[in-house]
């Protein structure tokens, strides 16, 4: 049996709401992926919110070892932030697309109602947060 390779922990863990049910939910995930593409997995990594909430031991263990956590929510409901709080995870930084960037949620089933410029805008905001965390 082949041993499971232990992943290198990123310096920053990203929890994106990634709800594909709305435009802003889709944007959180796509922008987080763009950040990983730009920075690489050693600097930042996307953490699995469902696995953490389902108490998957490996995911829970890894997330608790990541030095800094950033949460990205798509709307005023702040689902990812609240779910993580219920799991005892307090992020070092938080971004809400509606309240912080003025990107309005267009409601259910607006999954693809965004553009490349908005992905770039959200990715740049996440990168700025990471830059600030790395200074401190």
Model description:
The protein contains six helices and four strands, in the order βαβααβαβαα. It starts with 11 loop residues before the first strand and ends with a helix. Helix 1 packs across helix 6. It has one domain. It is an alpha/beta fold and 136 residues long. The mean pLDDT is 94. A four-stranded parallel β-sheet has the order 2-1-3-4, with helices on both faces.
Which segments are poorly predicted (pLDDT under 50) over 5 or more consecutive residues?
A: none
Q: Give the strand order, joined by hyphens, for the main sheet.
A: 2-1-3-4
Shape: globular
Radius of gyration: 15 Å
Distance between the termini: 43 Å
Going by helix content, strand content and strand pairing, the class is: alpha/beta
How many β-strands, per DSSP? Answer: 4
SSE string, helix = H, strand = E? Answer: EHEHHEHEHH
Average predicted local confidence, pLDDT? 94
What kind of sheet is the major sheet?
A: 4 strands, parallel
Q: Tell me the domain tally.
A: 1
Q: Which percent range describes the beta-strand content? A: 5-15%
